[in-house]
From TrEMBL:
Keyword tags: Cell membrane, Chaperone, Membrane, Protein transport, Transmembrane, Transmembrane helix, Transport
Membrane topology: Multi-pass membrane protein
UniProt xrefs under InterPro entries: Membr_insert_YidC, Membr_insert_YidC_N, YidC/ALB3/OXA1/COX18, YidC/Oxa/ALB_C, YidC_ALB_C, YidC_periplasmic_sf
Keyword Transmembrane helix applies: yes
Segment forming the signal sequence: none
Pfam families: 60KD_IMP, YidC_periplas
GO biological process entries: protein insertion into membrane; protein transport
GO molecular function: membrane insertase activity
GO cellular component, one term: plasma membrane
Name of the protein described by the UniProt record: Membrane protein insertase YidC
Ranges of residues in domain Membrane insertase YidC N-terminal: 71-334
Length: 534
């Protein structure tokens, strides 16, 4: 009886297996209906180590091509829309940033309609866009929603000339960084060799007339971080192959960065037809028949801020730079954020930081003004020496030095203390110019007692030019209070400086003008105290 039951069970199992094979076997591949096709699915994050070494592969599943469809990734930080035909981006909206200060303004979208044709986030094989050349399978899901600290991923699968391409993107709800693993499987009977290219593309992220916030190509190679703003040079193209870490299209506030797996990389960048494009090629890939290889890359689409870039791989944190005085700008920006945490207004925070800096340099400024007053007292004697020895330059200099020694005056005493402060001034200037926190940050949103919008955005100019004009007036008053130099020509030039600076500051971001204006007012107060004491 037991044997009969065993035979019966085995027989029923065989019948089930045969029936399953007959009714549910995979269908043969169909001919594609389009050259832009895709697959996407939600999967768990891969745990295997990334490698570019070819590995044996099991027989691939049947491939069925479909036309491209939209797949949305929704996180608290952004909403990204992919086209399943190649996994290219068609939209990337930043939820926490708006285009303008208007209440109904749209979120900032880093992918424009014009850029889609250049395949942002697309793959290239031997220089050809796989979103056009390859056939792509249909998506199995249309939405991936993440919240809190969740992570998730999408997979897009395509096929071109016997090469199976599998793109797996990993997303995190609290990060703008996107990790990708590309698996290349050779299903042909001959080896496949070539280069795999990653690319990002974007229109200008800023207005062409914005001299203080220009769109640029940034990159990091063995020589460090650099950038190129000149579109004429970019039309000729850039190319680097030594120690490439990343390439990016960026402005002061936003960035689209590409960071492929290191080794055998060539970075190219250009500007054509109003579009900036960065491409990184993984060179010298060879895949034997029925083997596979993996290549990893990372992307960052979001704000230029240490908050999200500091922990990004491939040294992407170095995108956050403030030029030559970067070493001073970053701590000053940290102090600015500290004050903002307490007062809740970025304009007030700038004023408090300016007061702090002025307080630190108060002794140096005091010494400078004291030296200038001493020089003022001996100016009649200096004029007499110049007149007496106007035909003998050497004798004039000797008498001048004797004059300085007799009255214990250092002619450079008024300048040296000021020179020490210049790097800090420029460091704060760069910090205020590049701080995304000041973008759309209000100081005095409306003209008092009216509905007229005024300093509602510290990253743009004062719409009524009130602050730069007042700044110019304070600078003129400061010049009048400062002891004039002995040279009349130099004195006239100094009086022209307020006019020059006023016109220069008319289109400056309001945050910078507020800083300079407050600094002038504090300098006037210090000079007034010095004169009163004298």
């Amino acid at each position: 009886m037991d044997n009969k039951r065993v035979f019966l069970a085995v027989g029923l199992s065989m019948i089930v297996l045969l029936a399953w094979s007959y009714f549910f076997a995979p269908k043969p591949s169909e001919q594609p209906v389009s050259t832009e096709q895709a697959q996407s699915e939600t999967v768990s994050a891969p745990n295997s180590a990334e490698s570019t070494t070819a590995q044996p592969a099991s027989a691939p599943a049947a491939f069925v091509a479909q036309s491209g469809q939209s797949v949305t990734v929704d996180t608290p930080l952004y909403k990204a829309v992919f086209n399943s035909a190649g996994g290219i981006l068609t939209s990337f909206e930043l939820k926490n940033y708006r285009e303008t200060i208007a209440a109904d303004s749209k979120p900032v979208n880093l992918i424009s309609q014009e850029a889609i044709g250049r395949g942002p986030l697309g793959l290239l094989w031997n220089g050809k866009g796989t979103w056009r050349e390859a056939q792509w399978a249909a998506p199995t899901t249309s939405t991936l929603a993440l919240s809190g600290e969740e992570a998730g991923s999408l997979t897009f699968t395509g096929q071109v000339n016997g090469l199976r391409i599998t793109r797996t993107f990993k997303f995190e709800a609290d990060s703008y960084f996107i990790d990708e693993k590309v698996n290349l499987l050779n299903t042909a009977n001959v080896p496949q060799s070539g280069r795999l290219g990653f690319t990002v593309a974007s229109e200008a992220l800023t207005s062409k007339d914005d001299r203080y916030n220009q769109t640029r190509i940034s990159y990091m190679t063995a020589d460090g971080v650099d950038n190129e703003k000149d579109t004429d040079d970019l039309e000729q193209g850039l190319k680097f192959s030594d120690g490439v870490k990343w390439g990016a299209v960026q402005s002061n506030y936003f960035v689209l960065a590409l960071a492929p797996q290191s080794g055998d990389l060539t970075l190219r960048a250009n500007y054509q037809n109003g579009l900036y494009r960065v491409q990184a090629d993984k060179d010298n890939l060879t895949i034997a028949p029925n083997t596979q290889t993996n290549v990893q890359a990372g992307y960052y689409f979001g704000p230029v801020t240490d908050k999200y870039l500091a922990d990004a791989p491939n040294q992407l944190g170095k995108i956050v730079t403030y030029g030559f005085f970067d070493i001073l700008s970053k701590p000053l920006l940290t102090l600015l954020r500290f004050f903002h945490n307490y007062v809740g207004n970025w304009g007030v925070a700038i004023i408090l930081l300016t007061i702090l800096i002025k307080g630190v340099f108060w002794p140096l400024s005091h010494k400078s003004y004291k030296s200038m007053n001493s020089m003022k007292k001996i100016q009649p004697l200096m004029a007499k020496v110049r007149e007496q020895y106007k035909d003998d330059r050497q004798k004039m200099n000797e008498e001048m030095m004797r004059l300085y020694k007799t009255y214990k005056v250092n002619p450079a005493g008024g300048c040296l203390p000021m020179l020490v402060q210049i790097p800090v001034f420029f460091g704060l200037y760069q910090a205020l110019l590049g701080a995304i926190e000041l973008r759309h940050a209000p100081f005095i949103s409306h003209v008092p007692f009216t509905d007229i919008i005024w300093l509602a955005d510290l990253s743009t100019k004062d719409p009524f030019y009130v602050t730069p004009v007042i700044m110019g007036l304070t600078m003129f008053l400061q010049q009048k209070m400062t002891p004039s130099p002995g040279d009349p020509t130099q004195a006239k030039m100094m009086l022209l400086m307020p006019v020059i600076f006023t016109f220069l500051f008319l289109n400056f971001p309001a945050g910078l003008v507020v800083y300079w204006l407050v600094n002038n007012v504090l300098s006037i107060a210090q000079q007034w105290m010095m004169l009163r004491k004298a």
